[in-house]
Amino acid sequence: MTKIEPFERHTNRYDDWFTKHKFAYQSELEAVRHHLPPNERGIEIGVGTARFAAPLGIRFGLEPSAEMRKMAQKRGVEVVGGVAEAIPFGDSIFGFALMVTTICFFDDLESSFREAYRILKAGGCLIIGFIDRGSRIGQSYERYKEDNVFYREATFYSVAEVVSALNKAGFRDFTFSQTIFKNLSHVDRIEPVKSGYGEGSFVVIKAIKKLNHNELHIPAL
Length: 221
What we know:
Oligomer: single chain
Radius of gyration: 17 Å
Structural class: alpha/beta
CATH superfamily: Vaccinia Virus protein VP39
CATH architecture: 3-Layer(aba) Sandwich
Helix content: 25-40%
Number of strands: 8
Largest sheet: 8 strands, mixed
């Protein structure tokens, strides 16, 4: 509950960040949008105030903070309470799952990825947007996180650490993109989205739940 409490108390402050940093926000939106599969039912895990789910057309969300859920519901997203480590949905029902700037608040990263793997259909994808710990902004967040009401309890990850946890959960076939190439205070227009990682502070990873042999369709002879 420690990591939820700031979001319960400072919901409006959290939501106002996206207005204050509108070009960085729009850049992140475009980076995520690039990876969304068409015509698939998706869920955002850690949907927050639906700043991503609503404009991206994602109908379902999971969020532990009651105050954040209220705001997400006002934006038209169907939100249920719960945490990433114990997702209250059945197996193999979503075509994709999205996690944006939330993995740093999870209690157990690998368990969260295993749960995402469980609820995805074979061939479905997990899309993760996060601040790379090794980037310019990531290093700044790490250095000053004790002064930030939201990031005080956060654990920031490198790309390599996220990929390692995804591999352990069973995901394969990774695709990377990146954006936000300046300090936030200098972002005065929508930033480009480039493939790969290592330059931009905001990284998106798309990872695939591979078909198992017993799920392959073999046509009759």
